[in-house]
Design brief:
The chain is α+β, with helices and mostly antiparallel strands and about 90 residues long. The chain is built from two helices and four strands; from the N terminus they run ββββαα. It has one domain. A four-stranded mixed beta sheet has the order 2-1-4-3, with no helix packed on it. The termini are far apart.
Length: about 90
């Protein structure tokens, strides 16, 4: 590998802001903030709006659009004629 052309690949702490879930993984993301972990390590910090711990798809709380009081059918009926050329 050539020296000086690759980004710095290191351990980074990601924090889900919606529930405080933290996980450490390796990344090249650039950040100005750091966090001190319980084990004494100080790592770069990346704040996330959502992660697999809080996203409805992964937590099983996702609602099907078809089951929300017929909203899909209402939309289809309202716009059924749009786009039909006669």
């Amino acid at each position: 590998m050539k020296e000086g052309i690759h980004p710095n690949y290191r351990e980074v702490c990601f924090v889900d802001l919606s529930n405080g879930f933290q996980f450490v993984t390796r990344s090249t993301v650039q950040t100005k903030e750091t966090i001190k972990l319980d084990d004494g390590r100080e790592l770069p910090l990346v704040k996330l709006e959502t992660s697999s711990e809080s996203h409805p798809f992964y937590t099983g709380t996702q609602k099907s659009v078809d089951n929300l009081g017929g909203r899909v059918e209402k939309f289809r009926n309202k716009f059924a004629r749009v786009g039909i050329k006669k």
